């Protein structure tokens, strides 16, 4: 269940009101700037499928709203930027053989495989990785947060931020765009180190690797990011859009094709495999998984 939503007034300079949003807070800290805050801190800001669908619609609205020039994406609270997919919901879908709602074209959070027109910056206020959490008697997995971060245009992070792609520990794979994006960003050996061990990447390493622009104390993180996006918003909006698209062309052509092929070849087989079900069930039951031989 989403946290209670406070409806923020839409400034008069916004031409079209934003679409209905239940799981995030929407605000406009400066003219031309959109701030989106995932509002599920009690669940470490994990996203059910419905939250991803509404974020996909929101980012499309943002791209089409003439007066908006730059956006900031963050999470409520002080512990997690985004806890990724709601594991309990995903396991229920597998166990009941229900048809899962499809993610929007932009992928998880409307962001993990988004191309879009306008820049979105991430203010990572805590963990963006995958680990078991026991909150209010429920199990949740922190997953797609790192997938969102990897496709953000610029990333600022607090000192407590950590990053991780631990899918091999869960019996699944990060097929929403993270794997080819890591290869482009970090190169072969650093990528293999991350994805084959599932280890945690510290914020200091993330800055050294070129992922994080700056590490900012948590209490000043949003202020720093909003000041930065004010600079972007002060430039020609046409020039910003065209420059961003032109720069991302090589990135998107290679990454998008690799993501599509990975999903075409492996996604359904992975999600229907006994090892995938075992990995998710083991987390829900708080035990170590008992892997079976692979027949892929």
TrEMBL record:
InterPro entries reported for this sequence: ClpP/crotonase-like_dom_sf, Enoyl-CoA_hydra/iso
Pathway where this protein functions: Mycotoxin biosynthesis
GO CC annotations, alphabetized: mitochondrion
Read off the CDD domains from this record: crotonase-like
* Keywords of the record: Virulence
A Pfam family annotated for this chain is ECH_1
What GO biological process term is on the record, naming one?
Answer: fatty acid beta-oxidation
User: Which domain of life does the UniProt lineage start with?
Assistant: Eukaryota
Among Gene3D superfamilies, the record links this protein to: 2-enoyl-CoA Hydratase, Chain A, domain 1
PANTHER family membership: ENOYL-COA HYDRATASE (AFU_ORTHOLOGUE AFUA_2G10650) (PTHR11941:SF158), ENOYL-COA HYDRATASE-RELATED (PTHR11941)
Q: What is this protein called?
A: Carnitinyl-CoA dehydratase
